[in-house]
Amino acid sequence: MRETLVLNASFEPLSTVSLRRAVVLVMQDKAVVEQEHAGLRIRAASIDMAVPQIIRLCRYVRVPFRQRAPWSRRGVLIRDRHRCAYCGRRATTVDHVLPRAQGGPDSWLNTVAACADDNHRKADRTPEEAGMRLLTQPFEPTPADALLLALRVRDQTGMPDWLAVPAA
Ligand SMILES: [Zn+2]
After folding, report:
1. Domain HNH nuclease spans what residues (predicted)?
2. 163 has a pLDDT exceeding 80
């Protein structure tokens, strides 16, 4: 997978994103190409552009890249796109994989989005004890996740809790 380096508007390197993401950012006028891959082009129905090696954001974004995103229930639901980790249906609750009753922490790696039915069924048991299987493994949001989410909003209003940035 070819990765593109993303610079902030201030030219500070922020992160890398997939080539597909980089092209989308340029096409949506959220970034400009700073450096192209010599001789490599992307050709599709409505696109003919050089493959970007480095892009720079048009607008300065403040994202806590070197900081771990603080855990929150709302953040878990957003990370998992409101899909239940046990059945794939719409999730409105957060389940602790290792239950809190057994010492399971509030952390990105120990929590998943779950529908109310599955959360109730699992109760204070591990997936193994409850005979349930995780369809996806919980993960910690990466700096690239945070960057892409941050770019969709004009300012911090409406930004997920786990992306909220302390005032500088
Ligand atoms: Zn479910």
Report:
1. 71-120
2. no
